[in-house]
Amino acid sequence: MRPAEELRYLILAAQREGNRLLGQALRPLGITPSQAEVIRILQERGPLTLNGLGELLVCESGSSPSRLVDRLVAAGLLKREVATHDRRHIELSLTAEGAQLSKKITKIEDDLYRAIDTAAEGHDLEHLFGFLRAFVADLPAGQALSRRTH
């Protein structure tokens, strides 16, 4: 297997396993990792328009998050309101139930990050981070991640 192919599959395997672990931990809450990402972004940055939310999503980069949002609104976790600054814009924000759920999601994510930190102990990740940032920099998911970290 050539190095680029192995790298591709290692990234894919890490992403799938991380998402599987996160999905298992979120299942008792009745939400998916993609829905959890929406909730956490709105907790950190809300209220946001649908487009504003879409620009920050890594899980759904390049597409509209309207179906995700519709499900979360129907579940009573998000609300849509007319923006005070412009009646043509609809703003999304968390309901009280959504805000409570966000706290539980944060705990689950923190547990996952601690496990990743443990696995990464003794490894110099700065070179890996630099490579991965450069690799995704001009791609939709990389741009969404960049907007979230700046």
Give a structural overview.
The protein has 150 residues and is mainly alpha-helical. Strands 1-3-2 form a three-stranded antiparallel β-sheet. Strand 2 and strand 3 form a beta hairpin. Helix 1 crosses helix 5. It is globular.
Question: Which descriptors would you attach to this protein?
Answer:
mainly alpha; 3-stranded antiparallel sheet; about 150 residues
Count of helix runs:
7
| Strand proportion | 5-15%
Rg over CA atoms, rounded to whole Å, is 17 Å
Shape: globular
> SSE order in H/E notation?
HHEHHEEHHH
- Total count of strands: 3
Q: Percent of residues in helical segments?
A: 55-70%
Average residue pLDDT: 92
Strand order of the largest sheet: 1-3-2
Largest sheet: 3 strands, antiparallel
Parts with pLDDT < 50 across at least 5 consecutive residues: none
Q: Termini, distance in Å?
A: 37 Å
What structural class do you assign from the helix and strand content? mainly alpha
Concise structural overview:
This protein is mainly alpha-helical and 150 residues long. It has helices at 3-26, 33-45, 50-54, 66-74, 96-120, 126-136, 140-149, and strands spanning 48-49, 78-82, 90-94.
What does the secondary structure layout of this molecule look like, with pairings?
Blueprint: H1 3-26, H2 33-45, E1 48-49, H3 50-54, H4 66-74, E2 78-82, E3 90-94, H5 96-120, H6 126-136, H7 140-149
Antiparallel strand pairs: 1-3, 2-3
Helix pairs in contact: 1-5, 2-5
